Automatic annotation (TrEMBL):
Coiled-coil regions listed: none
Superkingdom field: Eukaryota
InterPro entries in UniProt: Bet_v_I/MLP, MLP-like_ligand-binding, START-like_dom_sf
UniProt record, GO biological process: defense response
Location of the Bet v I/Major latex protein domain: 9-91
Annotated organism of origin: Zingiber officinale
Protein name (record): Bet v I/Major latex protein domain-containing protein
Length: 104
């Protein structure tokens, strides 16, 4: 099992996922999400770009560009705050969201 956590201001979201794949394989996919997610989830992500850092470590800032199918959100900046490989835990904060709420 692995955990994804996202916090923003007073909001915190945690997600525990059970998968048919091993926890190690799932964790590797999460760690490679910058390159992997746009390929395996093209209906969600147009691209994920590293703005600062290595894309995997705490302090990394990524620009997530969402696919046109994601009607209300076009992009978000995400900062990776914490990575714990032993516990398979990553915590990040999304900021600077670009929401398109008028056309929907």
């Amino acid at each position: 099992m692995f955990t994804l956590a996202s916090s923003s201001m007073a909001c915190k979201t945690e997600l525990d996922v059970e998968a048919k794949s091993s926890a190690d394989k799932m964790w590797e996919a999460i760690r490679m999400s910058t390159q992997l997610f746009p390929k395996i989830f093209p209906e969600e992500y147009e691209s994920i770009e590293i703005v600062e850092g290595d894309g995997k470590s705490a302090g990394t800032i990524r620009l997530l560009k969402y696919a046109p199918e994601v009607k209300i959100l076009t992009f978000a900046k995400e900062r990776i705050d914490l990575v714990d490989d032993e516990k398979k835990h990553v915590s990040s904060c999304k900021s600077k969201l670009n929401l398109d709420i008028q056309s929907h």
